[in-house]
Amino acid sequence: MDMLIIRGGIPLAGNVRLAGAKNASLPIMAASIAVSGLSQLRRVPHLADVSTLTQVLESLGAVVTRDLSTGELTITPPHATTGIADYDLVRRMRASVCVLGPLLARWGKAVVSLPGGCNIGHRPIDLHLKGLVALGARIRIERGYVHAEATRLHGAEIYLGGPFGSTVTGTANIMTAASLARGITRISAAACEPEIVDLGNYLNAAGARITGHGTPVIEIEGVDELHGVEHEVIPDRIEAGTMMIAAAATCGDVLIEDAQPRHLSAVIDILRQIGVTIEPSSTNDGRTGLHVSGAAYLNPADCTALPYPGVPTDLQAQLTALLCLVPGISVITDKVFPDRFMHVPELLRMGAQIRREGASAIIAGPAHLSGTNVMASDLRASAALVIAALAAEGESVIRRVYHLDRGYEKHDEKLRQLGAQIQRTTDHPEALPESLRMTGESTMEQHKIEEISSRFTPPFQNQPTKPHFLSDGYSIARPMVSQSDDSSGPVVDL
Ligand code: EPU
Known about the structure:
Helices cover 29% and strands 27% of the residues. The chain is α+β, with helices and mostly antiparallel strands. It has 2 domains: 2-18 and 236-479, UDP-n-acetylglucosamine1-carboxyvinyl-transferase, Chain, CATH 3.65.10.10; 22-232, UDP-n-acetylglucosamine1-carboxyvinyl-transferase, Chain (Alpha-beta prism). The protein has a 4-stranded mixed sheet, covered by helices on one side. It starts with a strand and ends with a strand.
């Protein structure tokens, strides 16, 4: 297993180019199983999740070839298929469930393993199944597998709203299945994410008749067959947001090439509120992007992750890492995955002051983050730990970076090009930096230990507080904030 060793405190600077979006590539690749001809896809990122879905498609009889130098991926659909997506593959990646709708629509049968548990919270697929049943599928769950059958699906009115909003991969499944159904389907409370728009554009290029993708009401007029197609995947807005936050956290100056401002409006808005400067920009060779410059003084924020066009839940962990560095009290709430806070205990180990309150994290800053050993629990949590490590004093070791490799193409290499001191090595005791080896005889000088101990105060305990009322009338005890009389900006009395 690999781990990352990061020396923090270096402002990121330079240009970085985005990969194609993981969450657009996966449903598009899955939809290719419903297409009768070749799917030639450009800008597919080189990621562990893409390799896993490639194996799922191959197990279904498709032939997948990829040119790593160009990012081009070609999928030849199967001539015949068992329609079985096995547990061993689906458990490695939930997005494998995206083959359910395409298999059913094109082949009349799908046997897809239920994905099982997930580190970011409860993730049922009831809405996917409800939509497919409305399209005429017969579905039963047996021994951990969804068995779905239909001779020919038919159009239907489908409401896809759930307790936490719509469902992104559920919308993908129903939209693809309805493309081959007889008659018209109208999905209301559809997911509006740019990745759904990209899937709709791919399907339309293959001969589907879809309108309204990108809005909460999608209309699909079913066709008899989808034909071969060429398509370029959109740039990854979550990679863009992650790089923007990393630039802000290190007080850096970065041009993110190919970032699409219209996909990132909520992220741009919250980062500007925090005090980060973001301007549309372009490179000498005419590529457009976003220029992000950090600032020495940042403002706390009250931020909620919501379905698109809100702040994405896939950036909640990274924003939490940034807000740890900001003076004052920040609140971050996740309304999409209310339990997606596995990064918090690891950030606490680095010196952050965060308290969980249901679906929220209340963050007292500025924390003086110090490098240490931390463990990645999931994809976006790993990205948050990388950001914290880039901003921390000293060296950090991040283990289980295979989570990071699932969704970020060459993340460490790209950060290195921006000046970060980041090294990838196999997880082995010998590889640990001297500063993080606990040998019994501490290598840390005594005065350093005392200095760190004197800084440590348990979060939110014994603090002088005054009530602070947020705009919705909910009040929290806010540590007193006083303006320092030197030039180092506001300080929090913690
Ligand atoms: N939900 C239901 N019933 C369902 C489906 C979802 O109640 O049938 C709930 C979920 O439990 C969750 C909310 O609805 O609370 C949203 O879930 P959604 O189905 O939209 O998530 P997803 O489609 O499984 C995609 C992304 C995730 C991203 C979410 C939310 C892909 C492959 N995955 O998952 O990406 O967090 O949408 O935007 O597109 C990531 O990239 O790190 C990642 C987890």
